[in-house]
Amino acid sequence: MSNSVYDIVAKNVKQIFDEENIDNIVTYDTKLDRTLGIDSINLLKLTLGIEEDLGINLDDYLNLIHSARTVRELVSIIEKATKK
Questions:
Q1: What is the number of other CB atoms lying within 10 angstroms of the CB of residue 73?
Q2: Cβ burial 13-39 (10 Å sphere, 16+ → b, else e)
Q3: Which domains are present in the chain?
């Protein structure tokens, strides 16, 4: 895998921000909440994008993904999923 999990998560979060016209830099501490356009639909898009980029299925992690508050938490969840 040439891109880190963080790079893939950040790319997908940035795509959501771009779609929502939100000018925000994505860092590990970027919050994943409604005020930044991460509603349930965009969380689904984010999850599907990450699944596609990594070639994995995240169905077993959806509750954890939904509860992630920051990019850092999401990266941690995705890293666990890739080691499964």
A1: 16
A2: beebbeeeeeeeebeeebebeeebbbe
A3: 5-83 (1.10.1200.10)
Residue of 73, 60, 24, 65 lying closest to 45 (CA atoms): 65
Backbone angles phi, psi at 31, to 5 degrees: -80, 145
Overall pTM > 0.85: yes
What does the block give as tokens for 45? Answer: 């898009």
C-alpha dist (Å) from residue 49 to 20, 43:
16, 10
Q: Which residue has the higher pLDDT, 35 or 51?
A: 51
Mean pLDDT, the chain, whole residue set: 93
Phi, psi of 70 (to 5 degrees): -135, 165
- Average pLDDT of span 63-80: 96
Contact 72, 78 (CB under 8 A): no
